[in-house]
Amino acid sequence: MKMRVVLAFLAAGSLAASAAAQPPSEPAPAATPPRPAGAAAARPGLPPPEPIGHIKDNVYKIFGGGGNTLVVVQKDGVALVDTKMPGNGPAIVSEVKKVTDKPIDLIIDTHSHPDHVGSNDYLREQYPNVRIVMNEGAKEELSGPRGNPKLLPTETYADHMTIGSGADQVELYHFGRGHTNGDTFVLFPAARLLCMGDVMAWNMAPFLPAGGAEAIAEEVEALVKAVKGKVDLVEEGHGHMNTWAGLERFARFNRALVDAAKRHYERGDPPGMAVADLQKNPDFAPLLDNHIKKGLEYGNTPLARAHMNVNVAYAELAGEQIGFGIANGAPLPATDKHKGSDPKDTAPPTPEMLAGEVAK
């Protein structure tokens, strides 16, 4: 997929995959991609990587330049989760060297989008023996004719994989389609820390470029069941650290969103009424925030993202194709099967919102 499509995905809180990385419902290569929801000429591009931050013990995080990069200093080397957009390899290496002289010997990619795999090529050049691991679905998405073979993994897994042992053990989980067809959740048992990738980013409803409102709910529920009792800290694919309680709330929210969409779809109500139901639950307030998030100044709000995902759910319930535009904020057109959405629900942020204080 061309880079302009990548930037469009960025505005929605995630990125499109390069080359063949996007699931089948992407626009045709020759198509002009829709304008990103909330794109603002005054705030183009990505914030650069920030200085490495300490999370706990041997765990660090580098924010900016794409997705979060988690850094875990192990006995003989350094494990990274995700490598940001292309061109950020030197910054990642520089920040890692601030905390250790050990080599980077393991990279785990949570999914195929270029803000998470983009600097794999530079890192494998600097560390020729590095292991690069991702789900087999993510490799497939990266393996198109226009893809960069240097981004590809050295090994893949299907549903579950264990790397290392003792304090250095890492567990990888895949539960089917969600944000992409190759999502990986990364558990560091010794640190009781879970990496979510963009299934959970900026503490808002996830971006669903290929549909999957029901699938994402099932995926997160399966994850919670699999790692319950093993996790205290949750690293989101973008933004801040969260908690186990935050992940459980996120799982309840995704299920409630689908249930509300089904209920109002069957009644013939407009999709906005499903979001209104979610707003009645005070537990969901953090996921329905109306502020622009740090690092997502060019994007939209959690509230707008909830509306987008309800629109996706309506289209799925009607058996309609889920195009990039609907998932990224275009209004849902009315059809003979359902009422369309209010364009204001997913409209780009106003200049006042963009000029205001960015929420953490």
Overall description:
The chain is 30% helix and 14% strand. The protein contains eleven helices and 13 strands. Helix 6 packs antiparallel against helix 7, helix 7 packs across helix 8 and helix 7 packs across helix 9. The relative contact order is 0.14.
Radius of gyration: 19 Å
- Helix-strand string: HEEEEHEHHEHEEEEEHEEHHHHH
**Shape label:** globular
Largest sheet: 7 strands, mixed
For the terminal residues, how far apart are their CA atoms? 31 Å
How do the strands of the widest beta sheet line up side by side?
Answer: 1-2-3-4-5-6-7
Q: Say what oligomer this is.
A: single chain
Structural class: alpha/beta
Strand content: 5-15%
Q: Give average pLDDT, whole number.
A: 87
Helical content (DSSP H or I, runs of 4+): 25-40%
Characteristics of this structure?
360 residues, 7-stranded mixed beta sheet, 6-stranded mixed beta sheet, single chain, alpha/beta
Question: How is this fold's topology laid out?
Answer:
Elements: H1 3-11, E1 53-56, E2 59-62, E3 69-73, E4 78-81, H2 89-96, E5 104-108, H3 114-117, H4 120-126, E6 131-135, H5 136-142, E7 155-157, E8 160-163, E9 170-173, E10 185-188, E11 193-195, H6 213-227, E12 233-235, E13 241-243, H7 244-267, H8 272-279, H9 302-317, H10 324-327, H11 351-355
Parallel strand pairs: 4-5, 5-6, 6-7, 11-12
Antiparallel strand pairs: 1-2, 2-3, 3-4, 8-9, 9-10, 10-11, 12-13
Helix pairs in contact: 6-7, 7-8, 7-9
Summarize the structure.
30% of the residues lie in helices and 14% in strands. It is built from 11 helices and 13 strands.
